[in-house]
Amino acid sequence: MEQFSLTDRTALVTGGASGIGHAAAQRFLEAGAKVVIGDLNRDESRKAVQSMGDKGFELESLEMDVSDEDSIINVFNVVRKTHGSIDVLVNSAGTGARMDATELPLKLWQKVMDVNLTGCFLCSREAAGSMLEQGSGSIVNVASIMGLVGGGIYPNPAYQTSKGGVVNLTRTLALDWAKLGIRVNAVAPAFLRTPLTQGLLEEPGMEQKLLERTPMGRLVEASEVADAILFLASDASSMITGHTLPVDGGWVAQ
Ligand SMILES: NC(=O)c1ccc[n+]([C@@H]2O[C@H](COP(=O)([O-])OP(=O)(O)OC[C@H]3O[C@@H](n4cnc5c(N)ncnc54)[C@H](O)[C@@H]3O)[C@@H](O)[C@H]2O)c1
Fold this sequence. Notes:
Number of strands: 7
Mean pLDDT: 97
Distance between the termini: 33 Å
Strand content: 5-15%
Low-confidence stretches: none
Radius of gyration: 17 Å
Strand order of the largest sheet: 3-2-1-4-5-6-7
Number of helices: 8
Helix content: 40-55%
Bound molecules: nicotinamide-adenine-dinucleotide
Order of helices and strands: EHEHEHEHEHEHHHE
Shape: globular
CATH superfamily: NAD(P)-binding Rossmann-like Domain
Number of domains: 1
């Protein structure tokens, strides 16, 4: 189990106040890491730190907007100053815009790209600055099955395009940094119950429709995605880079 340990490592989890990011932060703490949550939502971040920090774990949160370059640079500077290194980055902050392409305003398209794709690039760029100096590091992007297929259930074109971009950004950064000690991987979850999908899952008949499309016939648990993220973040996956691991109950195998 030593290979799964993150003892003495510092991890930054964007979007770590809620859902998948929150579950990953919890797993990392259990694996011995010092964890920094970077999130736009200050109240949820505070609650997350209270709920997990109470158990004696080393956890803090910093306000961060991954669609704002200055905010990202500032957070990475603070983490570097406080902890000296950044060993693991999880890019989990994300958003969507469920509407047909014919009705999608440019502003909304751009917002989804800024958060999901450009944010992922900028955070990876900043993390790599430290990781290259150390000669080691692991980046895990939270993509989606919607980055591996075209959607087909309801329209969400900006989201699906941005997640497809995350899958290829994962490959390209992995290749660029492979000889420099930085691994870059992604997880591609199917549907989970989180604030992001609350409205979707409340639509009449939608949950049933999604379950029928999922070979294993149930929603994904955030802890199941967190387990895959811990695997990719830790030395347990030391020869794996550029890979997107579906956590999808068989969805993309169909
Ligand atoms: N829930 C699902 O079914 C599902 C499926 C596949 C992939 N994903 C992906 O997982 C990731 C996490 O989603 P979740 O379901 O845990 O959602 P969530 O709403 O529970 O968590 C998302 C977090 O990101 C934060 N955030 C949003 N915009 C931000 C910004 N600009 N800067 C910093 N933080 C920001 C939010 O405050 C929130 O804490 C997303 O990238 C999402 O696309 C989710």
